[in-house]
Amino acid sequence: MKSTFRTVAAAALLAGTAFTPALAQSAPGYVDPSHYDILNGPTGYEAGNILVHLSVIGVLPEDVNSHVNVHNGPTLSGYNVHASDGISPELDASYFITKNLSLQLIAATSRHTLSINNGGVAETLGSAWVLPPTLTAQWHFPQIGIIRPYIGAGITVAFFYGVSPKDGDALGLRTAVGPAADIGFDVPLSGNWTANVDVKQMFLPVSARIDHGAVRANDGLDPTVVGFGVGYKF
After folding, report:
1. What is the greatest pairwise CA distance in the chain?
2. Running DSSP on this structure, what letter comes out for residue 35?
3. For the chain, which ranges sit under pLDDT 50?
4. Which residue, among 112, 104, 111, 109, has the nearest Cα to 83 in the 3D structure?
5. Is-contact 81 68, C-beta < 8 A?
6. Which fold has domain 4-233?
7. What is the reported pTM?
8. How confident is the model over 162-176, as pLDDT tens digits?
9. Most buried among 1, 94, 190, 218, using CB within 10 Å?
10. Distance between CA atoms of 228 and 196, rounded to whole angstroms?
């Protein structure tokens, strides 16, 4: 896998750490880091809370280990698959089982252009919308300063729809299923409102059928999803 996930996650967490001295003790819900208790400290949440986020996300496909082959034939040397980046709104909801453990379900959809590359020459296949509902279990660490950090792991099911082949050629995409991981943090604002930064890595092997299956393409889509939004706790 490319280093996108690690790079973006590290940048997001460093940005969050930088907020703490900037807002200091006047920030809502500030917790003194000198008294940090990683085992029993407050997370800002209680069992039964529901946290809803509305975010803008960037969907950045990794295109890992892609290849193209003729049906019942050999893999075509030098050919690989590329999916364009996408941007969309995202809505997610988390239910807190305990103050530390929550279950989160996300809903978002983004449009991507698909192409086959051969030696740097790209041929567009068409475009498609993807709907990847993702369920994760998240562990929320005790709040440190103004940061409420968490990590999570779960599963993604990606459905493709609105497929628009170029020049009328047949293009089919199979539903993909794979694991997902995420890392992020919330920052208390006013009342029950928070700001949120979240980075997810999804692992999605995708198969495409071109010209009624005469040509087949496989791609480790593996998108990194970076989100910035606001949340409200019920």
Report:
1. 66
2. G
3. 1-2, 20-21, 23-24
4. 112
5. yes
6. Porin (2.40.160)
7. 0.79
8. 887 776 566 778 888
9. 94
10. 6
